[in-house]
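Thread: magnesium ion complex, take 2
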Amino acid sequence: MKFELARKVLSGDTIAAAKLISGIADEVPGALAEMNQIYPHTGKAYIIGVTGAPGAGKSTLTGNLISHFRQEGKSVGVIAIDPTSAFTGGALLGDRIRMQQHGEDKDVFIRSLATRGLQGGLAKATIGTTHIMDAMGKDIILVETVGSGQIEIDITKVADTTLFVMTPGAGDAIQMMKAGILEATDIFVINKADKSGADIIKSDLQSMLSMRNQLPDEWQPGIILTEAIYDKGTAELAAEIARHREYLNKTGELKKRKQGRLKLELMETVERFVRDCINGIDHGDYLAKLVNDLDKGKTNPQAAAQQLVSRLASDLGRIKKVRQSGRKMA
Ligand SMILES: Nc1nc2c(ncn2[C@@H]2O[C@H](COP(=O)(O)OP(=O)(O)O)[C@@H](O)[C@H]2O)c(=O)[nH]1
Ligand SMILES: [Mg+2]
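Output below.
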């Protein structure tokens, strides 16, 4: 049956959902067509990003948040993004165990997304996975990702609320503030507060935040102390997430974030489309010739790019004309 996978996903079938998630990560054409059936059922889920250094306690915290939201009667989806291992890789095994208590719960759906070998863009695959969980009716989607470099900053654009998890003794707070993290974080979590130094990080963070130029009605990122292994601070963290959600709703920022995601997804789709088209021109011979000319110094990247784009435009124009005349004939 046509779009059977999408139909099954919409009825909550987790095996079908897992299949579709793999399909979009690998950019399988059939899966992309199925996704068109998914989009009309999206836009309801609230997306929470959990980022921070490896070992900070993100998975433990995520497990606590799952329990909290389940107690509120909400269904939960979890996306664990693993930058290193392949699908069956090691790091996620521990995560699975930490979240295993939810394994039997049909209202909790956990999927890992390996970034290595990902065909499309990372943001697109992640956003696609949130669409699938959203369409399955998940109220909350938690996205756990290691945050330390440049790519991960993009992940914060995927979430409505971004948590940045830090720990005492993991170096000076100021040093940990890689470019953009301060701006991209909605809530700071100082986990492992059972260890000494949590209060030092907190005051460092507070003084950094107070140095920022802020508009009067701008969001003031909260700082929450947690001891995730003892499930301490979970309720406070959930309350802060709720406060942020309310702020986003009230200010219209929620809609802006959603549109930002749609734009990101669109742009990655366009990039992919353009790349495919370029590779399709003379089956890539045209590209190879330009690379050759660049190598010989006969052209430069700017001129070669312009040449490629105009060739692409004329090819696309031809395709469109053929389609139009085809339609007239029919
Ligand atoms: N002392 C202490 N250890 C914690 C706490 N939260 C997590 N851990 C431990 O830190 C390690 C890494 O936790 P994990 O949740 O896998 O971190 P992730 O890599 O950020 O997902 C595990 O051994 C946890 O048991 C905490 O609040 N206090
Ligand atoms: Mg983890």
